[in-house]
Amino acid sequence: MTDEEGLPDPKTRVHTMADIMRAYTLYHDGDLENAVPALQKVVEENPKIEDAWGYLVLALLDLGRPDEAADTTLIALKQLPESKELPLKAARLLAQLGRLDAATVCANAAVAHNPAAAHTLLAQIAVKTGDLEGAEAHARAAMSSGSQQPEPRLILANALLSRNQAREAIDLLTRTLEEGIVGDPARERLAFAYAAIGDFRNARLVVDGFEGPVHPNLLLQFGQMALQLQMWAEAEEWAERVRRIVPDHPTIPLILGIVALNQGRLPEARTLLQDAVAVNLESAIAWNSLGLVFARLGDPGGAIIAWERTLQISPGLIEIKYNLGLAHAQLGNASQALFYLEDFVALAGPGPQRQQALEVAQKLRTLQSH
Questions:
Q1: Residue 351: phi, psi to the nearest 5?
Q2: What is the pTM of this model?
């Protein structure tokens, strides 16, 4: 009902305000079960009140009803297409719930009002969907829009690292820290980038500058990267550093065992790698390394046990079949040696290993025929 001038009836406005105040009071008092229907009544009758939609979404989230909260946000967007804040809020909520397509739509709508934050969120969504090119493009757009947050820079750094452009990542992250956009996540990526090119001196300097505690898994990652680069002393140093933090971490004997193996300290390597497989029976790299130790110690029987376990864990490691073939040949197990060597020859590409396997298999066939 309206008065003579076409304005809403004052009594109606009084009732509306009373409903709004009651709903808001219920929410702020923590009576969420009753706040939800009260807020739903408010937005049904007054769909242009953005705060009421916001409180309704928050109440549903606090009650553990995230899907309802997300659906409510989408309804609010239809009712308030002119809102400058709602698209970004909706996009963040939808992204957290894994509804990435809807989140992308909302984030794109938010670009006009908050380009830096919207492009950052779009970059994060692209990372989740495996679209590294899109992640890089949105990260650069966020930075161009004036974002002073570390997230787009970290996303861009990760994209560069995924393309083996570690030096470009180092330049980016160094500038990030120099610009005062600091934080241990940026330092962590910078240390990782240094380690990727084998510059462990600078990686250590960056890690030593962390504001908070250093996660041992990061240090172990550096140790494993040093192993891949065959920088044995570096790998040992990172593992020992972890030992000072977590003395019984299961990866320590693996790294130290591989180092000892490659430095020719075979009895020590055997002990360490036996410890490594004892704490992680499913580690193919530990079993394979233990097999190499036994082989170099002149114990083909021990090598066979370790390599057969390796093959059980990772059947696709065809070079283990080559190792098993030679070990069985050493023990005079011609049938087993032929089984593994001929299987290796059938699977392997051209190369000296395949040629040697072929020659050994032919000799064994010749011996069997006599």
A1: 160, 170
A2: 0.71
> CA-to-CA distance for 51 and 35, rounded, in angstroms?
14
Handedness of CA 274, 275, 278, 284 (dihedral sign): negative
% of the chain exceeding 90 in pLDDT? 82
Amino acid at 232: W
* Short-list 251, 329, 254, CA closest to 290: 254
Three-state DSSP state, 268: helix
Give pLDDT, residue 15. Answer: 60
**Each residue of 194-241: pLDDT tens digit?**
999 999 999 999 999 888 888 999 999 999 999 999 999 999 999 999
Q: What is the DSSP string of 75-120?
A: HHHHH-TT-SSHHHHHHHHHHHTT-HHHHHHHHHHHTTT-HHHHHH
Token pair 């996303």 in the structure block, residue: 155
Q: Do 108 and 72 contact (CB within 8 A), yes or no?
A: no
Q: Which residues pair with 2 in a beta bridge?
A: 8
What the block records as the tokens of 170 is: 């180092």
| Cβ neighbours of 219 (radius 10 Å) | 26
Among residues 186, 130, 129, 112, the alpha carbon closest in space to that of 153 is found at 186
Q: Which residues are registered as beta bridge partners of 8?
A: 2
Q: Phi and psi for 355 in degrees, rounded to 5?
A: -65, -40
Is the predicted pLDDT of residue 34 greater than 60, yes or no?
Answer: yes
Q: Residue 279 CB: number of other CB atoms within 10 A? A: 15
pLDDT tens profile 77-125: 999 999 999 999 999 999 998 999 999 999 999 999 999 999 999 999 9
What beta strand segments (E) does the chain contain? none
Chain mean position to CA 286: 23
